[in-house]
């Protein structure tokens, strides 16, 4: 998979995209990630990429020209399966979407910053408009990183355990997985459930299913 990300503040992306699972995916040649600095496509004297909004109002809006030039240049080189526009106005990103996007070969993510992005960028290029929740952040870089992380861990061969992602919460609809424990079996008076130490696979499976139901019901109550 190839992922391109356009950002006005690329430094926000550098470290997370070169750490942990995402770095491992790149080391294994399962993933290529390219960060594009929006200011590289600003040709005015001060590399200005934003301006005041038409119609008045607070904040600054990212100009269309740098985005258009960058995206059109990238599209000449690569055919994208998805061009994602990160916005609080978009569809809430979930595991089902992550599964779908993990099958793509080429993804481009457009991130805004400051107040907004000139809406002609979304109108012209976006195939997917995604949000990570009903709240507003300073920019789209953090949502982009979350989307990338959720996608990349699903690419076959990225995780050491090929089945690790299959048991995750939300992989089977809105279902929460059972809790996990490891050694020591007792710590500060807190014991691991006996069934997990029993070696009885049938009883362990039954316990996990029961715990999953309990936690799923609790999660649904939280999110009513």
Q: Would you kindly provide a written description of the structure presented here, covering whatever features stand out?
A:
The model has no long low-confidence stretch (mean pLDDT 93). The chain has 224 residues and is an alpha/beta fold. Helix content is 35%, strand content 19%. A five-stranded parallel β-sheet has the order 2-1-6-5-8. Helix 3 runs parallel beside helix 5. The chain contains eight helices and ten strands. The relative contact order is 0.15.
Name a few traits of the molecule.
224 residues; alpha/beta; 5-stranded parallel β-sheet; 3-stranded mixed β-sheet; 8 helices; elongated
What oligomerization state is this entry in? single chain
Integer average pLDDT: 93
Q: Give the strand content.
A: 15-25%
CA radius of gyration is 21 Å
Element order: H for helix, E for strand: EHHEEEHEHEEHEHEEHH
* Strand line-up in the sheet with most strands: 2-1-6-5-8
**Outline, from the CA principal axes?**
elongated
Kindly report how far apart the N and C termini lie: 36 Å
Low-confidence blocks of residues: none
The major β-sheet equals: 5 strands, parallel
- Overall SS class: alpha/beta
Fraction in helix: 25-40%
The strand count comes to: 10
Number of helices: 8
Summarize the structure.
The protein has 224 residues and is α/β, with parallel strands linked by helices. The protein is 35% helix and 19% strand.
SSE layout:
Blueprint: E1 2-7, H1 11-14, H2 20-27, E2 32-37, E3 50-51, E4 61-62, H3 64-77, E5 82-92, H4 95-101, E6 106-110, E7 116-117, H5 119-125, E8 128-131, H6 141-152, E9 186-187, E10 190-191, H7 194-197, H8 201-222
Parallel strand pairs: 1-2, 1-6, 4-7, 5-6, 5-8
Antiparallel strand pairs: 3-4, 9-10
């Amino acid at each position: 998979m190839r992922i391109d990300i356009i950002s006005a503040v690329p430094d926000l992306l550098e470290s997370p995209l070169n750490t942990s699972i995402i770095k491992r995916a790149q080391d294994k040649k399962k993933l290529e990630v390219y960060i594009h600095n929006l200011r590289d496509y600003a040709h005015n004297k001060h590399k200005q990429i934003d301006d005041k909004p038409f119609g008045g109002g607070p904040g600054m809006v990212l100009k269309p020209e740098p985005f258009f030039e960058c995206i059109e240049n990238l599209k000449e080189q690569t055919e994208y399966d998805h061009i994602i526009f990160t916005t609080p106005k978009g569809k809430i990103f979930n595991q089902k979407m992550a599964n779908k996007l993990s099958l793509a070969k080429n993804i481009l993510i457009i991130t805004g910053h400051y107040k907004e992005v000139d809406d002609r960028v979304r109108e012209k290029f976006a195939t997917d408009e995604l949000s990570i929740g009903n709240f507003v952040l300073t920019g789209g870089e953090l949502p982009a990183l979350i989307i990338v992380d959720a996608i990349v861990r699903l690419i076959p061969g990225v995780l050491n355990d090929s089945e690790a992602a299959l048991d995750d919460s939300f992989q089977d609809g809105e279902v929460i997985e059972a809790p996990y424990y490891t050694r020591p079996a007792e710590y500060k008076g807190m014991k691991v459930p006996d069934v997990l130490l029993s070696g009885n696979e049938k009883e362990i499976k039954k316990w996990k299913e029961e715990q999953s139901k309990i936690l799923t019901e609790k999660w649904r109550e939280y999110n009513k």
